[in-house]
Amino acid sequence: MVKQIIPKNLQEALNYLYDGDYKVIAGGTDLMIQKRNTADLLPKFSSNMLYVFNLEELKYVIKEDHQIRIGSMTSLETLLHHPDVPQLLKDVILDMASPGIRNMATLAGNIANASPAGDSLVPLYLMDAIIVLSSIYQNRYIPIEKVIIGPRKTVIQQNEIIKEIIIPNHDVTHYKWVKVGGRLADAISKVSFAGSITIEKEIVTDLRIALGAVYMTVIRDRSIEKIFKQMTIAQLKEDLPTLLSHYEDLIKPIDDQRSNKEYRLKVALNLIKDFITKL
Ligand SMILES: Cc1cc2nc3c(=O)[nH]c(=O)nc-3n(C[C@H](O)[C@H](O)[C@H](O)COP(=O)(O)OP(=O)(O)OC[C@H]3O[C@@H](n4cnc5c(N)ncnc54)[C@H](O)[C@@H]3O)c2cc1C
Q: Where among 127, 151, 168 does a domain terminate?
């Protein structure tokens, strides 16, 4: 029979993870669906479960000079209403699920679930988020794109927990978030896009593009972004076909029940085009 443990604090949670084979459960909004049973029966958990959602010490948003730090058990709904959370992340959270789910769901669960369509991953890639993985031995600080290594695959070790998400300050002159789903709320993305740009005296000093649900992981390519930095905004617009061709080479979507490859590719390129042409 599987054990179900509610640790009193983070240290106790880490001790359990060190001692035995436990699966961390936060809000449970992904896990309860993945392990669902027939009506009225408990979910079919096959491993020991460690319930960490109630760990108050992991519920915080702390603003510092150059970054904000988000405790991993802060609910999405709390983040949505917190004054220090970047507006881009709030815009994305508002498009995720519904208030009931958002009251339980966490960024950590969205990250560890590692779905290419995980909505919060797109702004977290865009803003260079650092994920803090804790074990009894150490804290590891890893950029999000190195934490997620494939669909449902991460580098999180069995004895580790996501303790914190760090978002460096990201001041921009323009940004855009678009989620394309089957309906307005409670929809999984067919394609998602976040772009940000900083323009100083007509010069592009920073350009970032992140795309969700069109590859095995979220796409963010700094080498492409770099080509277009230091251009004037007019040059960037003129060179849009080149920019699009770079992303066309990267985008490798799949067909699934929500959409098909052709649609996803076309929409992703249109979202980039729309972002640049409307600057
Ligand atoms: C109706 C509905 C609508 C949804 N809509 C959206 C949507 O619009 N966009 C979207 O992206 N997702 C959506 N989801 C999916 C889900 O709500 C999110 O992925 C959510 O962020 C998961 O967080 P959680 O805390 O519930 O994770 P859980 O279900 O608790 O866990 C998910 C995974 O993360 C691991 N995990 C959780 N916390 C930690 C931690 N601290 N350290 C290490 N591993 C951890 C768990 O072991 C598990 O593998 C929806 C789900 C439902 C049921």
A: 168
